[in-house]
Amino acid sequence: MLVLLHQLSQRKQLAPFISGTNGHVVMGGVLAGLQCGRVYADRLQAPASALIWAQNEMFYLIGSSDNDQFNRRVREVLVQELLPEALDAGEGMLNLEVYPEPGSDWSPVLHHMFNGRLREGLRVPFQFNLAKYEKWLERSTGSLFVPSEYHLHVIDRATIEVDRNGIIQKEILKFWHSVDDFIQYGAGTCMVHQGKVVATCISVFVSGTHHETGIHTYDPIHRGKGLATAMASTYIQLVLEKGGTPHWTTEDFRHDSIVIAGKLGFEQGRAYPVNYMPIQELLDCK
Hints:
Blueprint: E1 3-4, H1 8-11, H2 15-18, H3 24-31, E2 37-41, E3 49-54, E4 58-63, H4 68-88, E5 93-100, H5 107-113, E6 119-128, H6 130-140, E7 150-154, H7 157-162, H8 167-173, H9 179-185, E8 188-193, E9 196-207, E10 210-217, H10 227-241, E11 245-251, H11 255-263, E12 266-268, E13 272-278, H12 279-284
Parallel strand pairs: 4-5, 10-11
Antiparallel strand pairs: 1-2, 2-3, 3-4, 5-13, 6-11, 6-12, 6-13, 7-8, 8-9, 9-10
C-alpha cells in the first residue's frame, strides 16, 4: 500500500525517522509544508516506510525496507507520476538517499527496483561553526570584495520587483510554495551585473531554525570572481539574524563549493552515499 500524506499531522509521524540524518533539513522542510514536495507512506497511521520527494533536490526512502507491497508501489509511482513530472520541471537526474531503520537494508530493494542501474556518488555535509566564521570575517572584512561592476543585494520584496527577468522569483519557486513564505521564513542574497541578476544564494529548505543553503551562479563567465563567497557571507549573517543555523551540503566533485564552505566556518563531515541515474534512462527501460 502507498498513501499520499496531505496533512501536517500525518507527516509529523515521520519526524523520528529523519531526526539526526544528513537530510533532516530538506526532509523537514517538506514535512512541514514549507517547501515543495510529496510525502508517501505505507499507511496513514504509524507508518513504517516512506518516500519523500523534495522537488529540485532529492528523493528519500526511509524506514523499513522489508515492505514488499510498498516497494512495488514506490517504483510505479516514480515511473508513472513523479519522475515524468520532475523531468518536465527540468530535473534531469534522479537523486536518491536512503535512511533505513535499524536492521533494514535498502540495497537489495534498490537493485531490484531500478534493475541494477543506479550509480553511487558521495555527498559532503558541513556543520556551521560560528566562532570560525567570526574569525574569518574579522580577517576578511577589508579584503572581501568583488569587481566594481557587480552589486550585492539582500533579497527582499523590492529586489524581487526590480528583477526584470524574474530570475530570483523563479529560483525561489523551484523550492518554495510562495514568495511570501520565502520572505517570512527564508533568507537570501543576489549579485547584479549590468542590471541583471547573475547569481543567487538562498535558503532552499527550512526546517525549524535550520536553513539549507542553495547557491547558484548562472553563467560561467561570472565565476571565479568572489561572488559566491560574498553572497554566502551576507546570507549567513541574515540567517543568524533570524536566529537560524545555516547548513551546507554538496557533492564530493564540487571542489569550489567545498572550498567556499571551508572559508566560511563550515566544518566538513564524513561523506555519505547518494544514488543517482538519469531520469530519462530509467523511463526508457520501464
